[in-house]
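Hey, can you fold this one?
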Amino acid sequence: MKKTIIISMMLVSLGIEVSFAQLSSYDQNAPVGWASIGLEEGCTGSNDENPVVVKTEEELRAALQACKGGKASKTIYISGNIEVKEKLRYDKVTNCTIYGLPGSSLYNRNHNDNADYAGFFYCQNWENCILRNLTLLGAGAYDISACDNIQLVESKNIWIDHCDIQDGVDGNLDAKTKSDYLTISWCKFSYLIAPWSRAGESDDHRCSSMWGSSDNRGDDEGYLNATFVNCWWYHGCGQRCPRIRFGKVHIANCLWENGTESDPAQYCIGIGHSSKMYIENSDFTHTVLKSGQSNMRGHNKYFLQDDKKYHFTLKGNLGEADAVEVGKGYTGTVYNPYADANYKCGVYPANLVADVLRNTENGAGATLDEDQLTTRGNNNYNVTAVKAVKTADPARVVGIRYYNMNGMQLTSPQKGVNILEFQMSDGTTQINKIYQ
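Sure. Predicted structure:
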């Protein structure tokens, strides 16, 4: 508290408007895990280049068309509430970042039997792309194949962060067909609309995330590698939270609150063919499951085909004891993401997960404010394209770096003389000293 008061008083004396953008202390503000592997510089998206603010479906389509086929990097800011009447299907989008400005959403509430008019992003052959702070409002579960709010097909190095994804027709977020190097972080998934039904299909298809489309897709072996970190499966997500085939998937610091007494869930994590999972420091204690079901569908006696090639590790979770389970058909090394020296993903104790992710200011979901819409990492909150939205605002502090007198960067002010570098919302910096 003392440090905050000193800094705030200094800013006021300098005539600077004080506005601290506070991420959770557990938010690494970067594409940790699998999305950071596979490209020399990791997943950078547009690197905040070539900004455009879109307020209509037509403007959004034009912006996506502009970066289709790798034509150019593009930073797309979604402003306001935009109805999407037809799937956003643009192939070979590269080096693109899509941000949702605070309070914005994409919505499509129409039910029909045409897959082209349901869902939002159909991402085929996308590479090095980032989707952050999006709110996607679907029409509710209706069991039409390929009608997901987001579907990744043959896409790689994708970071989906701080998104609120609701009521997907076929699913909220799916990946298939050799998609790879994927990180899903700080996202909230839910089904808040009662499911629809159609003749001959499931009457309750509230299936949140399917990884891999079929056991017969042997060419998916070695792909579909993903990290789910700080994700929250909320009410209505009946199953597939997520369901994994083939991929090596790390699930850390996640929360399941997907079932209630009046609407119990089928299961949490689905164990699919040739899946390899490492599940750690997550919280299973807030879900309510249907009688006879388990958090891990396929866990022990509930696995229906135990000759499948699968394995999973449970470590440090609430509601599931530590365990390593290996299917009879699997031979090889049990997956541990940390065995790869290039793999980075910080985790914290499971007993903190529920409070951290439920925090309405900086927890899971579309909780980022304008000052945090950047791809440039924890040490730089400088905004670029977002200035086009609020160009008339006075410069304000959006981040601080601390240094000692020798120029070494610190995590916080230390005893003695400290150098403070203030990052301003207009892209400039200001330097001052304090004595702690």
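The two ends are 13 Å apart (CA to CA). Let me know if you want another pass with a different chain boundary.
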